[in-house]
Automatic annotation (TrEMBL):
GO terms for molecular function: interleukin-1 receptor activity. Residues 137-204, 209-314 form the Ig-like domain. Residues 1-22 form the signal peptide. Pfam families: ig. InterPro entries: Ig-like_dom, Ig-like_dom_sf, Ig-like_fold, Ig_sub, IL-1_rcpt_fam, IL-1_rcpt_I/II-typ, Immunoglobulin_dom. This is Ig-like domain-containing protein. SUPFAM superfamilies: Immunoglobulin. The chain crosses the membrane at residues 320-345. The keyword Glycoprotein applies. Belongs to the interleukin-1 receptor family. The lineage of its organism: Eukaryota, Metazoa, Chordata, Craniata, Vertebrata. It comes from the Eukaryota. Keywords: Disulfide bond, Glycoprotein, Immunoglobulin domain, Membrane, Repeat, Signal, Transmembrane, Transmembrane helix.
Length: 375
């Protein structure tokens, strides 16, 4: 146990033994050397609203009451404004335990302050603030708005830095990707009496895959038979229990009651790696009216913009089986060959008859010539 932790425990024990009750657990702050620190004394009722708390520094040697009039406070860059105790630039000497009270010993609030060197990794680990964004979405990093100085100390903007990079960033990603996962440091700057003072925080950014519709595809057409039962699955990758998918028919919600001719139902399957949601659109009996509508699977998420996929239904074009087609072709071929053969044969026969008549005519002519010569 460190010296600071020991002092904090002793302070709490002393508080209990003397009958002084704290209204909250001790707040512990972790800061770097040179940074500004703000301790704010809470109040429990409207009676405390206008009162100025009494601050006490419980050091290793003695207990010091802090007020704006003390010389030691000025020398240590400590000031009090309203309910806030402000250390303009923290040093190792500021490390320790503090408490505040509004004069009523039954209400005392305790604070612990640990001051690290600028090279300390422990400070970053203690001060990390987790943040989650999703791929292909816009993302804005939020610098923690805690321990904000009083109004007489003016804000001078926020600067972001990615771990391992020196170039400043604005903390905004138009379309974030998994490679942007990292630890980022935000520095809040403040102006007071012509001097600049800083407060730094670390944000651990985890970029996860966005929820998305895996199937069907956009404008996909499904071929169906009239009178048939058809089920179309909308499969969605989800990364949150609050993500949901459902079906629309021409912009109207499809019912989940299976007594309707068209309805849908949902199932979730989750394993160690991923979670998928399936919204099944069911047509109990395809009708002509169903073919005239557009159907949309819509994904709604708590952490990203909605997405959707619209599909249509078309009637199947019926084709003859291949075997039947071959039979028809064969029959047609036989008919063509038969007719062609008949034509050829008929032409052959016609030529034969013509030749016979010509020979007969020649023989008749020859007989006539012979008869005339005899005469």
């Amino acid at each position: 146990m460190t010296t600071q932790q020991t002092l904090l425990v002793l302070l709490l024990v002393l508080t209990l033994l003397t009958g002084v009750m704290s209204s909250q657990e001790a707040q512990v702050l972790h800061v770097r050397v040179g940074e500004m620190v703000v301790l704010e004394c809470p109040y429990l009722s409207h009676k405390d609203g206008g009162a100025t708390p009494l601050w006490t520094n419980h050091s290793t040697q003695d207990v010091n009451v802090i007020n704006n009039m003390s010389t030691s406070a000025e020398q240590m860059d400590v000031l009090i404004h309203g309910r806030s105790l402000v250390i303009l630039r923290a040093t190792i000497n500021h490390q320790g335990n503090y408490s505040c009270t509004y004069g009523n010993a039954s209400r005392r609030f305790c604070f612990g302050l640990t001051v690290y060197t600028t090279q300390s990794r422990e400070h970053g680990e203690k001060n990390q603030n987790p943040s989650t964004c999703y791929t292909q979405q816009s993302c804005t990093l939020r610098c923690p708005a805690v321990n904000i100085p009083p109004v007489n100390i003016t804000s001078n903007g926020i600067m972001w830095h990615k771990e391992g990079e020196s170039s400043p960033q604005n903390g905004y990603f138009e379309s974030i990707s998994e490679k942007d996962s990292s630890v980022y440091t935000c520095t809040r700057s403040y102006l007071y009496r012509g001097q600049t003072y800083n407060m730094t925080f670390t944000v651990s950014l985890d970029v996860k895959p966005s929820s998305e519709i895996l199937s069907p595809h956009k404008n996909e057409a499904f071929r169906v038979d009239l009178g048939s039962t058809v089920v179309i699955n909308c499969t969605v990758f989800v990364n949150s229990d609050f993500d949901d998918a459902f079906w629309l028919s021409d912009g109207s919600f499809v019912e989940t009651d299976n007594s309707f001719p068209v309805f849908y139902n949902s199932t979730r399957v989750k394993n160690s790696k991923e979670e998928k949601l399936t919204a099944s659109l069911v047509f109990t009996k395809i009708s002509e009216e169903d073919l005239l509508k557009n159907y949309t699977c819509k994904l709604e998420s708590s952490h990203q913009s909605s997405s959707f996929v619209t599909i249509t239904l078309t009637r199947k074009a019926h084709h003859f089986p291949l075997s039947l087609t071959l039979c028809i072709v064969a029959i047609v071929a036989v008919i063509v060959l038969t007719i062609g053969g008949a034509v050829i044969l008929s032409r052959g026969c016609s030529r034969s008859k013509g030749c016979v008549r010509l020979n007969r005519a020649k023989r008749s002519s020859s007989h006539l010539s012979t008869s005339w010569s005899r005469v």
